[in-house]
């Protein structure tokens, strides 16, 4: 998951809803202080999951 949310709030909400562990990787814009649509966020997620752009779906 790549989100412009603040981890301090959003991670707690996702855990409360039992959703956090459904994601193999969670990158919040507050972590690297970069916001979507900056492609560096997406590159970080691709690198972290060891995937190529053609292997993922952006929703």
3D structure, described in words:
By secondary structure, the chain is mainly α. It has one domain. Helices cover about 35% and strands about 5% of the residues. The protein has 2 helices and 2 strands, in the order E-H-E-H. The protein has a two-stranded parallel sheet with strand order 1-2. Helix 1 links the parallel strand 1 (about 1-5) and strand 2 (about 25-30). The model has no long low-confidence stretch (mean pLDDT about 95).
**Major sheet: arrangement of strands:** 1-2
| Average pLDDT figure | 93
Label the structural class: mainly alpha
Enumerate the spans where pLDDT stays under 50 for 5 or more consecutive residues. none
What gross morphology would you assign? globular
**N-C termini distance:** 10 Å
Strand content: 5-15%
Largest sheet: number of strands, sense, barrel closure: 2 strands, parallel
Tally of structural domains: 1
